[in-house]
């Protein structure tokens, strides 16, 4: 099977109460780890490429790596998606360059401007058989200065979603309900601590999600910033020379619940980075005489495969949905 768009994936996911994992790819080992897991579990998958990934690895290398994964996993529906396209030009170059899905993220712009640019991308994409994800509301990140109470204005306003989707014609919509990019999603002041002293983040705003679903019945919703930052990896990183204090993510059971609702795409990037880094740090510490990159990249690739398999089984629910 060639690369596909997300249209059929999302339709089945919506009706089946599961979500498709969208994993960021930057190099061969990550592409292999993700797609081997999807292949073995017979799960559809979205491979997504950010602007930073294109700058790091080069557009052509990434497209060809993904095409290789398609050849190696002929029975698995795979989409190649641009993550956080920041302009019409970036989206156009991915549409022209073999992607089957693009995101245009004008969520930081005023509503009318967001509609205008998103519609421009949608018109071009649909003419070329490509689908478009747009965003309303802005996610907090590690730089964000506001706490949850004061930051309410960055959540998606459900009363805007219907007009936005109707006027832009976008195929899926990323909304902000309290997820956040990166491994440092929340400040300690936003959280409580459990008995082990680990931060517990504020719960996702399912009330906002429910309101959006009411206004957009049957329409695929996307969650960004949905890594869970497994504490066992943070511990390994810190044990072997790293320093990641108070790195936390979104609890997996909340994401699982979102996947059962209208959330059809869940973006996971930090957990893959963390799994690789923890594995490599440990390997390096335990084998100070090794210098062949294959020696540490092989367990790192296995770590990617293991974490993706875990997500497919326990968070996304997409086993055997290929
Ligand atoms: Zn994102």
Textual characterization of the structure:
The protein has helices spanning about 5-15, 30-40, 50-55, 60-70, 90-95, 110-125, 160-170, 205-215, 230-240, 250-260, 270-285, 295-315; strands at about 20-25, 45-50, 80-85, 100-105, 130-135, 170-175, 190-195, 200, 220-225, 265-270. Residues about 140-155 have low confidence and may be disordered. It contains 12 helices and 10 strands. It has one domain: TIM Barrel (Alpha-Beta Barrel). The strands form 2 sheets. Strands 1-2-3-4-5-6-9-10 form an 8-stranded parallel beta barrel, surrounded by 10 helices. Helix 7 (about 160-170) packs across helix 8 (about 205-215), helix 9 packs parallel to helix 11 (about 270-285) and helix 11 packs antiparallel against helix 12 (about 295-315). It has about 325 residues and is of the alpha/beta class. It is globular. The site of zinc ion (ZN) has 5 residues, from loops. Zinc ion (ZN) binds near residues 84, 224, 225 and 267.
The tally of strands reads 10
Side by side, the strands of the main sheet go: 1-2-3-4-5-6-9-10
CATH superfamily: Aldolase class I
Which CATH C-level class is it? Alpha Beta
Question: Which term fits the overall shape?
Answer: globular
């Amino acid at each position: 099977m060639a690369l596909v768009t997300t249209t059929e994936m999302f339709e089945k996911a919506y009706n089946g109460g599961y979500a498709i994992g969208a994993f960021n790819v930057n190099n061969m080992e990550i592409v292999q780890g993700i797609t081997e897991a999807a292949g073995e579990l017979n799960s559809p998958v979205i491979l997504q490429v950010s602007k930073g990934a294109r700058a790091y690895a080069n557009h052509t290398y990434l497209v060809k790596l993904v095409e290789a994964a398609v050849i190696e996993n002929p029975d698995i529906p795979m989409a190649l998606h641009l993550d956080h396209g920041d302009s019409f030009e970036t989206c156009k170059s991915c549409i022209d360059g073999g992607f089957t899905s693009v995101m245009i993220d004008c969520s930081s712009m005023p509503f009318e401007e967001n509609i205008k640019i998103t519609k421009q991308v949608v018109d071009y994409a649909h003419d070329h058989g490509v689908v478009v994800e747009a965003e309303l509301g802005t996610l907090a990140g590690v730089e964000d200065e506001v706490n949850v109470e004061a930051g309410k204005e960055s959540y998606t306003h459900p009363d805007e979603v219907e007009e936005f989707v109707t006027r832009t014609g976008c195929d899926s919509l990323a909304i902000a309900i309290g997820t956040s990019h990166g491994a440092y999603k929340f400040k300690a002041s936003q959280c409580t601590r459990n008995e082990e002293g680990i931060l517990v983040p504020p719960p996702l705003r399912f009330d906002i999600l429910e309101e959006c679903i009411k206004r957009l019945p049957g329409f695929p919703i996307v969650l960004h910033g949905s890594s869970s930052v497994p504490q066992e990896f943070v511990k390994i990183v810190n044990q072997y020379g790293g320093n990641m204090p108070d790195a936390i993510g979104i609890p997996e059971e909340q994401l699982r619940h979102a996947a059962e609702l209208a959330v059809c795409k869940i973006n996971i990037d930090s957990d893959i980075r963390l799994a690789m880094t923890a594995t490599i740090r440990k390997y390096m510490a335990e084998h100070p005489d090794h210098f062949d990159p294959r020696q540490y990249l092989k367990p790192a690739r296995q770590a990617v495969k293991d974490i993706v398999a875990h997500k497919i089984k326990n968070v996304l629910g997409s086993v055997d949905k290929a």
